[in-house]
Structure formats: structure tokens, C-alpha cells
Amino acid sequence: MRLRFAPSPTGALHIGGARTALFNWLLARHAQGELVLRIEDTDRERSSAENVEQILDALRWLELDWDEGPVFQSQRGERHAQALRALLESGHAYRSNATAEDVKAYKQRHGAERGFRGEPESAGAVRLRVPDEGATVVHDLIRGDTRFEHVHLDDPVIARADGSVLYNFAVAIDDLDARISHVVRGEDHLSNTPKQLLAIEAARAAGFGGEAPTPVYAHLPLLHGADGKKLSKRHGAASVQDLRQAGYLPEAVRNYLALLGWGSGDDSTVLSTDELIRRFTLEHVSRNPARFDETKLRWLDGVYIRGLAPHELCARLAGFLREHGHALAAEDSRFARAVAISQEKIHTLADFWPLTGPLLNGTSDDPKARRRWLDAVGRATLADVRETLAGVESFDEAGVGQALEAVVERRGVKPGQVYQPLRVAISGSTVSPGIFESVALLGRDETLRRIDTALAPE
């Protein structure tokens, strides 16, 4: 089995493209086949080296490797020209100067449903000759058979007048040359498939392509947002880079994307990559649109974060913090303990800094939190807490916990009435890891210093 992932470098690798790459990769690894990476960069105006690198970087981050490539479509011009000459010489293609207006006039004469047929000319763009009778049937492993009657198909333009070939012809020749056995791609490509199949048949008839197989096609269902509408930027993360910047783990993203339109067969949700490879087949891919819900991805990412060994989470967070301008925090002697007390509370790597960064980097500033919890009552409670903590003999989590619980009991209030003023004093906001763990992490001197600052007259 030989598959290919063929992105166009006209932007970052969006989530739908990442899902397509993953499905191809899983299928290739499941079947012990080969995956070819092809960069379809024939759109000269929109393709760029920067976008190519973004796509490669996204695939590397997702840990999706390939066996051949990257092959750049733009570098195969001579091969495409050879195929084009073969079709012209054999009569399977012809030159035509027909304009859009000519096509419109043709359809007015013959009926709107009649495919355009041109007359061969000595110059002009190149059109593929579609048979007048019969049909091209796309045998789709997901959608079943789709029949395209030739009488309704225009002779498609496959090359410009200057000889530069168009997308559908280049793809057909590239698939033949690479001996691609299975084309797995988005449903939006279904309308391209009959043109590509006709080009493959014509190339073969012209003696081009040898004994390469005709690919089997599988068109993946569209991706929708949680609201059921076509996935777009308004739904949140739109690209793999967005997910990476948001602090998701690549293994969690692989797991989640695999479940968008594919079922494991037993409703399993948390599946390791090895398990996905073992189970993945096209038979369990749905025809129905799949919904990308970032809330569910956050939940799944949290499961993966809690499953990491502490040293591994430290390493992941250190790398993430360095990329986002907080390198010194990862070098703090308290960093490992700060990670440990945060692991149960964060869902992404990006959650760590807002939650725990103030303990390592100095308090944040939340005026609303100060007004809510450091009023006269809160300040009186905080003064009591300060006096109690100053006298704690063993300033560890157990000792701090006993001391704070004693304050709660002595004042006859709910725990939050004691813990929240303290939390605002030591972190600047109403969020932090567990209060006992946070105070113990800071230590006696720093905790008392921050309380004193909070109690100082403004």
C-alpha cells in the first residue's frame, strides 16, 4: 500500500489537513505500507517557502513521519510536459482557444447539462478529450460508488497555452509516477476525482504511466465546528500551529483527530498512538461530517497531562515556557515542585503559567480579586493568617495545612473565607494550585513578605 499526503503551501497546515495527514499515516503504518509527502506548490502566487516550512514543522510536531519526499510538484515540470506531449500526439488531448463565453454559447446551443466539446486548433490551452458516451465511476471506500456521466462533463483544461499544466493533470501524473495505490483526502476533492481518473486513463492509453495502478479513493467527511457549521477560525484553533501555541500535547492531538470521523469500534476515547495504528482501517470511517470541539480536546489533553511522569511534564513545560518568554522560570529550583502541584489542575501546557507562574515570578495584579477578598474583613482574616503562619514550626504542606485549618475553625467561617484572601495575597488572583501546596512552595519568608505587601496601606 502506497499513500500520499499532498498539502498545498498556501498557508499553515489547518486542522482538516492535519486530520487527512494523520489518517494517511495511520493507514500506512497499519498496513506496513509507505507514505509519500508531496508538496503541491503549483499555485505560484500563493505558495511560499515559509508556508512549506510551516507545514513540515507541523508534521514534525505531530510526529507524523514519511517514507519518501518531500517531493515538490513544481520541480516535476519536465515530467508533466512529457505526459502532455504524449496526450497531444495520441489525440487524447487537443489545443483550444475557447473562452468562457464560447463555452457558455456552446451550452446555450446544446443545453446547459451538455458538457463542452471543443474543436482542435493549432494553438491555445490544452483540453483533455472526454469520451462522449459512458461514465466515470469513482469507487470510493467510504462513500461507495459515485457515477459521473461523460455527457455532462466538459473537456477540462489541463494546461495553459504556455504549456504549464493545471492541478488535476499534475496530480494524476504524479500519482501514476509515484505508484500511489490509495488516495485518502477530504470530501471537497470528490469533484476533482473524475477528471483525475480520466487523465490517468488517457495517459495510459497514450503509452504513459507503465503498469502503475489506478488509485483507490477514499474521501473523508468534512469537519464542522461544535455548532454544526463548517470548521473555520471562528471556532477557535484553526491550524496545527494554533494548537501548538495553545499548549496541547501532540499525542493528545493525534488521539483526538483520529476520532473525528473514525470510530475504534468499542467507543474507546483514550487511545495511544500504537493502539490507533493497530486498529485503524477505512472501514470504520464515517460518511457523516465530524465535529471538532475544542472543549473535548482540552479534556483529552488534560487526561494525557495527568498521565505524564513528573519529569516528563517538567521537560515539556520547560520547553513551552522557553518558547513563550519564561525561560528563567524553568531554571528556578522550585520548578519541579511547582509542576507537581499543578499537574492535576491544568489541561494544557499553556494553563501552567496563569495558574502557577505568579508563585515563581511575582504576584499578578487582579484589582477585582483585591476588591472582593481584601476588604476590611478579608484584611483582618489575612492578618490572623499571617500571625499564625509566622509561628508554624514545620513549614511544609502538612504544617501549613494544620495552621490554616486552625484559623478556619477559630474564626468560625467557611474555608474559602480564609483561603481566598491568602491566595490573592500570595498570587495576586483567585487562582493558584492548592493553597497549602502554594504556601509551602513559597516558603515562610516569601509568604510573609507577600502578605505584608498585601496588608500595607495603599
Distance separating the two termini:
72 Å
Radius of gyration: 31 Å
Give the helix level as a range of percent.
40-55%
Which class best fits the helix and strand makeup?
mainly alpha
What proportion strand? 5-15%
The whole-number mean of residue pLDDT values reads: 95
Description:
Strand 9, helix 6 and strand 10 form a beta-alpha-beta unit. A three-stranded parallel β-sheet has the order 1-2-3. It has a three-stranded antiparallel β-sheet with strand order 4-5-8. A two-stranded antiparallel ribbon has the order 6-7. It has 20 helices and twelve strands. The mean pLDDT is 95. The chain is mostly helical and 458 residues long. It starts with a strand and ends with a helix.
Outline of this structure?
With 458 residues, the protein is mainly alpha-helical.
SSE map:
Blueprint: E1 2-5, H1 15-30, E2 34-39, H2 49-61, E3 68-72, H3 77-90, E4 93-96, H4 100-110, E5 125-128, E6 135-140, E7 144-149, E8 157-159, H5 167-177, E9 182-186, H6 193-205, E10 216-220, E11 223-225, H7 240-245, H8 250-258, H9 273-279, E12 290-292, H10 294-307, H11 310-323, H12 327-330, H13 335-340, H14 352-361, H15 367-373, H16 376-390, H17 397-411, H18 415-427, H19 435-442, H20 444-455
Parallel strand pairs: 1-2, 2-3, 9-10, 11-12
Antiparallel strand pairs: 4-5, 5-8, 6-7
